[in-house]
Amino acid sequence: MNRFLPLVGGWCVLLIGLPVMGQETDWVPAPEPVIWRSLRDTHLPGADWRFVEAMRTDRAEAAEYLRRPRAVNDTVELEAGLLLRRAGQEAWTSRVLAMRAVCPEGRMERKDENGEWTPYPGRPGTVVKVRWICSLP
Questions:
Q1: What is the reported pLDDT for 52?
Q2: Long-range contacts of 92-97 (CB under 8 A, 24+ apart)
Q3: Gap between the Cα atoms of 24 and 32, Å rounded
Q4: Distances, alpha carbon 58 to alpha carbons 55, 61, 65, in Å
Q5: At a CB cut-off of 8 Å and minimum separation 6, what does 121 contact?
Q6: C-alpha angle with apex 33: 133 to 38, nearest 5 degrees?
Q7: pLDDT tens-digit profile of 33-72?
């Protein structure tokens, strides 16, 4: 269902697929499973995280979260949280990224280390998830 994509520094992340402002969304996240809630409380800093989705493969387990969605012109900026444990590892890692949904285009961007917005690779399902994200603020 979800796919891992490489990210700078050897991190792999799941892509969040998001919505287009003014359009109805046809996707909503499932409720957060109890096990992920416990891991989120332990490993993701701060509060107000909203569960997006989780996956498990032979290579890793991961869950995506978002918080603080805010409309900025034709985008929705947010913080994206990732919980990740690679196969064979005991420890969970977490990462928080500044991202935005470009609503009219149905795609995501990530803020790089220079503060510039750069394209974030999409995957099947990204457009409907962008629509959902754009419906949040």
A1: 95
A2: 92/39, 92/42, 92/43, 93/11, 93/43, 94/43, 94/44, 94/45, 95/11, 95/13, 96/44, 96/45, 97/13
A3: 22
A4: 10, 8, 22
A5: 5, 15
A6: 105
A7: 999 999 999 999 999 999 999 999 999 999 999 999 999 9
